[in-house]
Hints:
By secondary structure, the protein is an alpha+beta fold. The protein has 2 helices and 6 strands. It has a 6-stranded mixed sheet with strand order 1-2-3-6-5-4. A hairpin with a 4-residue loop joins strand 2 and strand 3 (61-72). The chain is elongated and about 45 Å long.
Amino acid sequence: xxxxxxxxxxxxxxxxxxxxxxxxxxxxxxxxxxxxxxxxxxxxxxxxxxxxxxxxxxxxxxxxxxxxxxxxxxxxxxxxxxxxxxxxxxxxxxxxxxxxxxxxxxxxxxxxxxxxxxxxxxxxxxxxxxxxxxxx
Length: 136
């Protein structure tokens, strides 16, 4: 018998923001779901977005896809921050944060350079990782 999905998934965006904010290599960057006030794409920032995912009932696991949009004052800085964000998230495999355990983190795409047409001066890399969270 398959376990039905919970009525609400954990707020994985907030969970990932907390994990990334705790990473020393990202201490100089704004880490959030929404861009900070006055953002123009040239500041150091990591924006976290859930892009979907799936519930695996038998395992009681939420498996969302997380997109990281990483910005910096230069292309090189944005690339360095993107790698630091990936590393911070990948380092959480097997760790419990709050009432959720990261059972796996798999990189699907990235980091890759992606021009941002909303912020003309932006230096942006994106990457997509699948996070498996055991939900208790």
